[in-house]
Structure formats: C-alpha cells, structure tokens
Amino acid sequence: MKELQQAIREQDCLLAGLQVATTFQNGVGCLNHYQQQVSQWKADAELYIDSPDINAVSFSRFITFFFVELAFSGSEENYFSSQYSLINKVLEYRTGMPVSLAIVFQSLGKSLGFDIQGVNFPGHFLVKCNFDDGTTVFVDPVNGKQLSRDNLQALYFSILNEFEDEEMPEEALNEACCEETLVRLLHNLKSAYISEKKYAEALGVVETLVQLCPNDPYERRDRGFLLHQLDCTQVAIADYQFFIRQCPKDPATQLLQAQLQQLSEQVPVVLH
C-alpha cells in the first residue's frame, strides 16, 4: 500500500495501476518490464510524429500512433472482464476500458511532452490535451475520436438521461487527479470481480478503496456485502451498520436493515 500511495502522490497513474495489477494477480512480470515497454513506445512515437512541436497537429499524429499503429482499443466483447482493468493485461493485449486505456494514453502522451489529463466524466472516462494557445482537445480513450462540445454534451445526457438543465455542468469536464483516476479504475475492477463471482479478489479491491477513501460509506457497504458472501458475518454486520448510520435515507438502507436483522439472528451469542 505504501508503494501505491507513493505513486499516487507522484501523480504516476501508470505505476499506480501496475501496482494494483500486481496485488491481485500471481505471476505478474516485473514492473520494469512494462515500464520499459512504454519507454520503447515513446521512442517509436517520436519517430512517427517526427516533430518537436507540441500542437494540435502533432497531437493528432500521436492519436493515430496510439490507436492505429499500436492498435489500442476498447473491447467489443465481454466489456466488463476484469482483465480490462488490470493495466499489465491492457499493455499486453492493447485492449481495455475507458479509464485503463486513458491511463496508458496519458502516460505515453505526457512522456512526449503533451499536457494530457484524465477527465472523470460520468459513465465514460475521457482524456483531454491542453495547449499553450488556450485550446483544449477532448478524446475518447476507447477509439481516439476527438469530441466537440456538442459531442460531450450529447454523451453526458445519453449517460445520465437527464434533461433538467439545458447545459452540461462545467465540472463534468474537470481534470481528474491520480487518486480519482485510480479510484475509478478500482471501482471497475471491483464490479468485474463481483460479476465473475471472484469475491475474495473483489474484497481485496474494496479493502484498497477503503484505505484510500476511509470515510466513504458506500465502500463500507460493498465490503459488508463481500464479507457476507465469504461468511464473515460479524464484520459484515459492522459495515452494514456503518452504512445505515451514515446514509439513513439511501434507498438501499431499508433493504440492508432487513438483511441486518437476518444476519444478527445467525450470529451466535458469545458468553464471557
């Protein structure tokens, strides 16, 4: 965990993502191997772009290099597989989810001098590149498509299905720091493991999230669910109780209260 927190402090999303991958897999190769691969891609990209200038033209060349020459893309099948949230697998197979692809794209682009930032967009992680002339280009990390303001607004409302406001809020386009990016990656990995019924691995992800976000009641709720699946009833009860106290009006609270009653009846009374 110390190494992960250090990578987050240094805003090194690629290293942080690789450290997460090593935590939840046996036999993952040396991290240096993957970092050296990215370094080689940097050298190849410099030859492909063939320009020292940092502008929209050279950035467009970088996009082509990443999505055409290296053939990175989003998965068309089994989209929520855990391998698409494990950065080493993303580097090996060049396939991932929006946030995992964004981490690789951002890391490689920054090494080339581009001011690329992640965007914690609702439902679909994005990246953007800022230029010295004040312009910003938004990119879909799944396919490299450059997104106009109209594209972004249409994507926003298609995901949230809300039309109360005529305009997309500006905070939807805020830059994501390394910790926010990693939390998004971990949420995807947690959901994938739960879908695959790998509850022990999912619990490990939630434990990491609880350490990063100790006061988030939803992480405690999810940990309670996983502990329940693994028959760790007493600890699950404590997490459920924490969530109920913190979120009494949440729609899940009433269901959890009924679940808590059943669990309490199952826990044996210990007399000292």
Topology:
Blueprint lengths: L1 H8 L3 H11 L7 H19 L6 H14 L3 E2 L12 H7 L1 E2 L1 H14 L3 E5 L6 E5 L5 E4 L6 E2 L1 H12 L14 E2 L1 H18 L3 H14 L4 H13 L3 H14 L4 H16 L6
Parallel strand pairs: 1-2
Antiparallel strand pairs: 3-4, 3-7, 4-5, 5-6
Structure, explained:
This protein is α+β, with helices and mostly antiparallel strands and 272 residues long. Helix content is 59%, strand content 8%. The chain has twelve helices and seven strands. The strands form two sheets. It has a five-stranded antiparallel beta sheet with strand order 6-5-4-3-7. Strands 1-2 form a two-stranded parallel sheet. The longest helix is centred in the first third of the chain and has 19 residues, at 31-49.
Number of strands: 7
Radius of gyration: 21 Å
Largest sheet: 5 strands, antiparallel
Mean pLDDT: 90
The number of helical elements comes to 12
In spatial order, strands of the major sheet run 6-5-4-3-7
Name the shape in a single word.
Answer: globular
Derived structural class: alpha+beta
